[in-house]
Every structure is written in structure tokens, then in C-alpha cells.
Amino acid sequence: MPVIRSSDAVTHEIHGARFVSYATPLSGSKELCAWRGEIPAGTKAPAHTVNREEIFHLLIGDLLITLDGVTERVTAGDTVIINPGATLAVENPTAHTAITWVTTSIGLEATMTDGTVITPPWAN
Questions:
Q1: Which among 93, 14, 86 has a CA at the least distance from the CA of 50?
Q2: Beta-bridge partners for 39
Q3: Which of 35, 44, 48, 61 has the lowest tally of Cβ within 10 angstroms?
Q4: Neighbouring-strand partners of residue 38
């Protein structure tokens, strides 16, 4: 039985946020990836367009999520569905780190506004 212990999770950092990867092909997943996101106070991540659906669940905190130009405040317990082709930006305007749980299918890529394509290792 594949069990990924918290001590075995792999941590990545980009754009001021931390991504703690649990489920990827490297850990035995065949179709899905899952990670915990840690978004520090004051972080404003750059907008990016995703090629796969993401399910973004806020465990702790408050965030401003801009999805295709529409901004919503989300709070702990809220879930945002990000469809393929959507442009997403995340901001933590609070004084506390927000914690998320995100799932997607293997092969996620993010295209930044300048055209740079990022293939995040926590989702591939």
C-alpha cells in the first residue's frame, strides 16, 4: 500500500510560496497529483494560465483568488475549481500564512503572462 509519510514529502519553493508534494508519479501516483500549498502573508503570486483542471481547497486562512479577471475572497473551507485554460492569480493580503490542498491530473503546466511555461515538479 503506497503511503507517503509527511517526512517523505518533497518541498519546492517558487514565487514566494512553498509547495509540499505528496502524490506524483515519483511517489507512485498513476493519474493525480496532490500537494499542500503554503502562501505566506503578503504574497502576491503572478497570474498564470493552467492546462489542467485544479481543485484548490483552502484549509487555513483567507486569500484573494482572481480567476479569469474576477476576484473573490475565499476563506478556510472554501474550494475553487480552476478549469483548463483559466488564468489564475493568488494573493494573501493577510498577516498569516494560508494553507491549501490542491489536486490536479499529471501533466499540469502553467503559462506565465510573459509566455514562460512552467512545468511544476509537484504536479508531474
A1: 86
A2: 98
A3: 44
A4: 18, 99
Q: Give 36-54 pLDDT, tens digit per residue.
A: 999 999 999 999 999 999 9
In sequence order, which ranges of 11-92 are alpha helices (DSSP H)? none
10 with 18: CB under 8 angstroms? no
Q: 3-class SS at 123?
A: helix
Grid coordinates standing for 102? 490542491
Place of cell 498569516: 96
Domain extents in the chain: 6-123
DSSP readout, 93-110? -SSS-EEEEEEEETT--E
Dihedrals phi, psi of 122, to nearest 5 degrees:
-80, -5
Using DSSP bridges, classify how beta strands 110-112 and 117-118 pair: parallel, antiparallel or unpaired: antiparallel
Domain at 6-123, CATH class = mainly beta
CA atoms of 36 and 119, how far apart (whole Å): 17
Among left, alpha and beta (phi > 0; psi -120 to 50; other), residue 87 is: beta
